[in-house]
């Protein structure tokens, strides 16, 4: 993505040329990078959160709140996934103007992100319950 953008800027401002459809390709790459990155941030527990009050709770209560957060995230992503399927049926067949590629290539990033996010939530919940059971035994 960086290389294509660099080449496009060079071509546009130095050689006064452009590559047809390259801006659409960069946009598609940016969308997928953002979608996959947001899913990965769930697994790494790096999504935006304000936890100043949660930090004052006991470890067990913090884990309960984290479990509720993960359940809400799963519900959110299932809801987005379901509504996205209708949108894909409606808009997925149209072609992008510069590249002529079907829009489903771009729109598919949303259900892919939702499925990845759900999997990462399940993974994070598994780690959370493993830590909870280990700390309960101590």
- Overall spatial form: elongated
User: In angstroms, what separates the terminal alpha carbons?
Assistant: 49 Å
Radius of gyration over all CA atoms, rounded: 21 Å
Question: What is the count of helical runs?
Answer: 5
Order of helices and strands, N to C? HHHHH
Number of separate domains: 1
Major pleated sheet: none
Multimerization status: single chain
Using DSSP, what is the number of strands? 0
User: Helical residue percent?
Assistant: over 70%
Give the helix/strand class: mainly alpha
Low-confidence stretches: none
Report mean pLDDT, rounded to a whole number: 84
Proportion in β-strands: under 5%
Protein described:
By secondary structure, the chain is mainly alpha-helical. It has one domain. The protein is elongated, with a radius of gyration of 21 Å. The relative contact order is 0.14.
Task: Produce a short descriptive summary.
The protein is an all-alpha fold.
Features:
about 140 residues; mainly alpha; elongated
Helix-strand blueprint:
Layout: H1 2-13, H2 22-43, H3 59-91, H4 104-107, H5 109-137
Helix pairs in contact: 2-5, 3-5
């Amino acid at each position: 993505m960086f290389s294509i953008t660099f080449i496009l800027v060079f071509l546009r401002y130095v050689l006064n040329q452009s590559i047809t459809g390259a801006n659409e390709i960069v946009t598609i790459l940016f969308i997928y990078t953002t979608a996959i990155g947001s899913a990965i941030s769930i697994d790494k527990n790096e999504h935006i959160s304000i936890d100043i009050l949660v930090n004052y709770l006991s470890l067990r209560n913090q884990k309960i709140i984290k479990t509720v957060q993960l359940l809400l995230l799963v519900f959110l992503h299932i809801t987005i996934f379901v509504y996205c399927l209708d949108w894909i049926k409606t808009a997925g067949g149209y072609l992008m103007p510069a590249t002529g590629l079907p829009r489903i290539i771009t729109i598919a990033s949303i259900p892919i992100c939702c499925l990845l996010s759900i999997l990462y939530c399940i993974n994070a919940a598994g780690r959370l319950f493993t830590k909870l059971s280990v700390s309960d035994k101590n």
